[in-house]
Specification:
Elements: E1 2-3, E2 6-11, E3 24-29, E4 36-41, E5 50-57, E6 61-69, E7 75-87, E8 91-96, E9 105-111, E10 118-125, E11 130-138
Antiparallel strand pairs: 1-2, 2-3, 4-5, 5-6, 6-7, 8-9, 9-10, 10-11
The structure holds calcium ion (2 copies).
């Protein structure tokens, strides 16, 4: 939901009987929605899905924010990763538990350059932040055909 330059994260909790409860606001962030991409995963292995937000800062730089779901039916917003050189665009974002430790990790797909391939960066969750490294170079995966957030 958008209110001026802010973004509100709304949650309709499951009834556990096939329905959804009423939408409720869990957090309001003073960030334009056009500067955010969201993917969902349990980054701290507590059984509650969290929201990972790729944020575009000034200068087109990437920060990664996490909305950690709490037992109090709210999100706690924290910056988990920030860079002074990693650009926000052009990237595509996905989640997977890349190292099978039970904590969802962020995958960032980047344009591989003039050869048309794709680079994959792995942002491994530590439960309170991300450790980042180039994970794969995929020359056969054409960037122009990749669809992700
Ligand atoms: Ca969680
Ligand atoms: Ca993991």
């Amino acid at each position: 939901m958008i209110r001026g330059t802010a973004t509100e994260a709304l949650v309709a909790r499951s009834t556990n009987t096939g329905g959804l409860r009423t939408l409720r606001s869990w957090v309001t962030m003073f960030i334009r929605p056009s500067s955010l991409r969201a993917v969902v995963g349990d980054v701290n292995r507590d059984g509650r899905d969290d929201v990972i937000l790729a944020r575009r800062r000034s200068g087109d730089l990437l920060s990664v924010l996490v909305l950690r779901a709490t037992s109090a039916r709210s999100f706690v917003l924290r910056t988990w990763w920030s860079s002074s050189s990693f650009s926000w665009s052009p990237n595509r974002f996905a989640t997977a538990d890349a190292n099978r430790d039970g904590m969802a990790d962020l995958l960032v797909y980047r344009n591989g350059g003039t050869d048309g391939g794709t680079l994959v960066y792995r942002f491994l969750s530590t439960g309170a932040g991300f450790r980042t490294a180039l994970w794969r170079t995929l020359p056969a995966l054409s960037w122009s055909t990749l669809e992700a957030l």
